[in-house]
Amino acid sequence: MEKPIQDKFELTASGIDHSVEQTAELLAKEKIDPKDALRLRFMLEETMLQYRDAFSETAEASLRSSRFFGAFRVSLRVRGESLDPFREKETSETSVMGSLLANSETLNRAWRYRGGANLVTFTVAKKHRVSQLVTILLGIGIGAAAGLLLKLLTPATAPEIAERIITPLTNAFTGLLCVMATVMCFGAITLGIVRLGDISTFSSIGRRMIRGFLLVAFLLTLLNTAWMIPGMTFGMSSRVSIDFYDFYDILLGFVPNNILSPILNFNSVHIVIIGVMFGITMLKMGQKSDRLTEVFDEVNTVAILSNSSLNHFISAYVGLMVCGMIASGQLAVLSGFWKLFLIVVAGEGITLLAYTLYVCIRLRVSVRTYLKKLLPSFMISLSSANVGAAFTTTIDTLIGPLGVDTDFAPLAYNLGGILFRPGYCIVFTACSMFMANLYGVEVTWAWLLAAFLLSFILSVATPPVIGGTTVCFSILFSQLGIRAEALSMIISVNAIFEFLTVAVNNYCLQSQIVLLGNKFGKLDHARLRQ
Fold first, then answer.
1. Residue 191 and residue 297: Cα distance in Å, rounded?
2. Separation between Cα atoms, residue 422 and residue 348, nearest integer Å
3. CA 270 to CA 279: how far, in whole Å?
4. Which residues of 182-200 are buried (b: 16+ CB within 10 A; e: fewer)?
5. Which of 197-201, 281-285, 497-501 has the highest mean pLDDT?
6. Gap between the Cα atoms of 355 and 349, Å rounded
7. Is residue 446 within 8 Å of 239, Cβ to Cβ?
8. Residue 153 DSSP label
9. For 157-166, 200-209, 214-223, 423-432, which range has the lowest pLDDT when averaged over its residues?
10. Handedness of CA 339, 340, 345, 350 (dihedral sign)
11. What pLDDT shows up at residue 357?
């Protein structure tokens, strides 16, 4: 519940000083970290000075405070024309505001315009005494040790414990994460579109983002196919038959049948489609949608803070996932496919290295700094093989340490999550070509072209639900003439590949969003390089 700090004051020098002093006293009472308190005071004062310069000293303002799940929030409301204090030229890297934003790790800010007033909020999150990356690595280590200890029990005991105790527990926690991620995904898409201001801006940015995602996915599939060619045995036949009705069925699957299934299954494609429809409609409604936007914003805030609370248990969740995987013997399936495993790891490793070096050279950021910022979300994705589990951490990383614009990052992440899955580009091409050689399929240049195009299309069209990759492998193998028994084998192997694939998808998508943010002028370079 909001409490007034100062109601209806003018942006005069004395009015600003008095309101800042009252805020400082409240921060001291709330026992906010002194560094965060000092930074919040400076940012609040700088914001009010910007509005005073843009409007006048007689502009009406009010200041309120509230608490959300342990986080402390200060809200400033200033009446006047729409003015985002975090997007103006004054927030460049060399400005006071730019410097404060660049050095802010636990202090988040947001702006929106409604009812003829600018609403600026500053939220101070709790500081973690230990780095999240350290706790995740610790959880992985403890989980691996526990899994190995369970393997020392009788042969039937470890798998039974994994199946009846560990898996239900991790599935329940995954469900909680996905429920919150569903709300955040929908809110990010809807609010991101509304805050772009008009349909033409959304169309321009959306079209260029989609083009960028598809182009990179196409090039990655092409390069991975070319890399595999020297190991292939070619034949003379040019016969390749492709049934495009299979792709038609996948495209129909993009349309949601009802409003509940996307929420229950965390189907990001359906969520994004519904979010885009809502966002465009609200954008066309203009000021009539202000109240609805406010409701969406508050619900999204609650989901974000709830998910942040769940993130306190992420290290334990990751440890249980690793423990269960080892105890159930899932890793044993790789023993017969070690060559394919090395091919996939090499392909995805090279992709990660190329992305890292390109971003670091292009944007002049140190490799060590960049890796340190992306490792927490990468490790969560790697150990859980679940997009929803890393959703909050990924968005927080984009907006915070990586310096991507607050509204642009969630919109780009959710849109890219549908179209940009470089890990699947590599897995589909590697698995199809490896199994073709293993089963003696006659490989021709026409067959190779079909494998390349199918891998690219399926990497974009993979349904984001349980069994989605199974459907795609079934189509891929049937179209390329690979024997049916190969499908069951590759599905078992892919259950292990999925962990690395999801992590690579997430890492590369974040890197691509950083590059797009730089291209669209929605990237804070100072914060990225910090």
1. 7
2. 8
3. 14
4. bbbbbbbbbbbbbbbeeee
5. 497-501
6. 10
7. yes
8. S
9. 200-209
10. positive
11. 92
